[in-house]
Each structure stands twice: as C-alpha cells, then as structure tokens.
Design brief:
By secondary structure, the chain is α+β, with helices and mostly antiparallel strands. The protein is built from two helices and three strands, in the order βββαα. Helix content is about 20%, strand content about 15%. A three-stranded antiparallel sheet has the order 1-2-3, with helices on one face. It binds zinc ion (ZN).
C-alpha cells in the first residue's frame, strides 16, 4: 500500500525490494513545509490520515498548508521505526 499526496510527496510501503521510503516533489510546496515530516510518519508503516476539519492542523491530516501539530502516538512510531535504530 502506498500513500499519495498529490503534488507533494509519496511514501512507498509495499516494496518487495526496499524498506519503506519517501519521495517529494521539489518544484511544489504544500505551504506548511510539513510534507517531508508527514511522509516520514507514513514510512513507519502507517498509511492512515487524520480526517476531519478539527484535525486539519495535525501533521497526518490530508489537508496541506496548515499542518503544525503531531500526536504522541506518531512520535512513538518514529522512535521505533527501522530508520531510527
Ligand atoms: Zn499522507
């Protein structure tokens, strides 16, 4: 399963060859400069997004341009990720 953020970034989770990895477009910006951090959380194996207008400032929101908050659960996933060891 892959997560696509149209126009900004993508994280590939289902490769049979590579560990999860992120790609970012360098010629566009989400405005909040949070796309890399968003994709890195996906690379922990979590393809989900935070849905809902009240959560639009969450890093894992699908809404771009306003992401500034992160859940402790996502921080914990980052700390345990393969790339953090
Ligand atoms: Zn995403």
């Amino acid at each position: 399963m892959a997560c696509f953020q149209p126009g900004h970034g993508v994280t590939k989770l289902d490769s049979n060859v590579w560990l999860p990895y992120c790609c970012l477009r360098t010629n566009t910006s989400a405005g909040d400069f949070a796309t890399l951090a968003h994709e890195i959380v996906h690379a922990t194996g979590d393809a989900r997004h935070i849905i809902g207008g009240a959560q639009r400032t969450n890093l894992m929101s699908e809404v771009t341009g306003q992401r500034a908050d992160i859940y402790k659960a996502h921080i914990d996933r980052l700390a345990k990720a393969y790339f953090a060891k």
